[in-house]
Design goal:
- This protein has 427 residues and is an alpha/beta fold.
- It contains 14 helices and eleven strands.
- A hairpin with a 6-residue loop joins strand 2 and strand 3.
Length: 427
């Protein structure tokens, strides 16, 4: 079954390709080093070195958010569209624009024009956790290729940082809707913050990936790379997993609520400094459809702390799916593990409502009426067995005796740029 699905959905050229990786890390520098560029405008270190002869941006959510904020603030008061329920009514995003306004006030930033927002990572995100992404279109020899680049954590932006901390496990199958699955395995659980943020990243009616792929008329059968660094790396993995399942369902199901029938995108992901997105069953299923063709590349620095979190907290319950039949040892493991499973589920149930409340009210969603989404349809999981997902390639950082105040030096996208060039470039 899985081999048929791979042929149907993911006929993508696989393996680590240095030319691809070195291009995509620059997309990550563009997104993740924006604050460093603002702080060090004279430094070339934090400037992206994007090959404009082969890749050009065709959508930048940061610019879109900035333009819409200015338009929203310029409306008549009260607005002409008050009470309008049209999909494009900016009132649906009022909570987001209010958040931008409050953040600017706290930082004593005067928003004189859209550029002020677009250039400030504390202001230019969308959704509950201030996500941002760019769609690149390949030109020249890259014609027919697109890349989705997803921003990582903005540590100065508390909603973005909070996303990382909401790591209780949530079931990834039928997430918020029967038509939204990041996995087919009922035992697969995913980091809650990453999962909720990825849902918004995909489904936001104005700034989300699905809407923009449609609006930009990304051609069927295009090669679609999904890339990210840090938090963006975990989300890139989840976008890859979601699109794989959604594209397959679009071709095999009589219904097409996501409008993906015939899209047949060929998928490949590059995740730099990937924090662990889900548990072992999630990673194992992800490997089923990416491992043979080698279409999910993960590049982690051995002394970067971020790929080591969230911490794996296993219990005997995590072993129960590995022992089948009525053997004594299997029964003992299930009995002992049941206690831990109940306790871990209870902890997740206590934490999940906070994530759910944080996610509410920030926008309007793609094909909402057809998907029958309910905010309470998220289901807390019990397995905290977090592991990497994808084929991990290790690069080796050089310890710095005195990194100054930059405790995350080994984690920066610019550090990964240097490590790729020095260790993975063809000899």
């Amino acid at each position: 079954m899985w081999n048929d699905v791979i042929v149907r959905v993911l006929a993508a050229p696989g393996g680590y390709v240095h030319q691809e990786a070195s291009a995509f890390i620059e997309f990550c520098v563009e997104l993740d080093s924006q604050d460093d560029r603002n702080e060090h405008p004279d430094s070339d270190v934090f400037k992206p070195r994007i090959d404009t002869q082969h890749w050009r941006p065709v959508y930048d959510s940061r610019a879109a958010v900035a333009a819409d904020y200015m338009q929203y603030k310029a409306r008549p008061n009260p607005p002409v569209s008050a009470g309008d329920t049209a999909d494009d009514d900016l009132s649906h995003w009022a909570k987001l624009y209010s958040l931008i306004e409050r953040a600017a006030a706290r930082r004593k930033i005067e928003i004189q024009n859209a550029t002020v927002i677009e250039n400030n990572p504390d202001l230019n995100g969308f959704g509950p956790w201030q996500s941002a992404w760019i769609l690149y279109k390949g030109v020249g020899s890259n014609t027919g290729r697109y890349a989705i680049a997803i921003r990582g954590t903005v540590f100065s932006n508390s909603p973005s940082a909070i996303e990382d901390a909401l790591f209780q496990p949530v079931v990834g199958r039928d997430f918020l809707s029967a038509d939204v699955s990041f996995t087919r395995n009922g035992n697969a659980t995913i980091h809650s913050g990453f999962l909720h943020a990825t849902f918004t990243l995909l489904f936001d009616r104005r700034y989300g990936i699905l809407q923009i792929l449609k609006d930009r008329q990304v051609e069927p059968a295009s090669m679609l790379y999904i890339v990210g660094h840090s938090q963006g790396a975990a989300m890139a993995t989840l976008v890859h997993a979601f699109l794989f399942n959604a594209l397959d369902n679009a071709e095999t199901s009589p219904n097409d609520p996501l409008g993906l029938k015939g899209a047949r995108y060929r998928l490949k992901s590059y995740a730099f400094a990937q924090p662990k997105p889900g548990n072992y069953p999630f990673a194992a299923e992800f490997a089923r459809y990416t491992q043979t063709l080698d279409t999910a590349i993960v590049i982690n620095n051995d002394i970067d702390p971020v790929p080591k979190v969230p911490m794996t907290m296993q219990s005997t319950a995590d072993l129960e799916t590995d022992f089948h039949g009525r053997f004594l040892v299997a029964n003992v493991i299930r009995s002992v593990g049941g206690v831990g499973k109940a306790l871990r589920s209870a902890i997740s149930e206590l934490c999940e409502p906070f994530t759910r409340r944080s996610a509410m009210g920030y926008g309007y969603y793609y094909n909402w009426s057809q998907l029958h989404v309910k905010a309470t349809n998220d289901r807390a999981g019990w397995s905290w067995e977090f592991v990497p997902a994808g084929r991990v390639i290790i690069v080796f950082g050089t310890p710095i005796a005195d990194p100054g105040s930059d405790i995350f030096f080994q984690h920066h996208a610019t550090t990964y740029r240097d490590l790729l060039a020095s260790q993975l470039a063809p000899r």
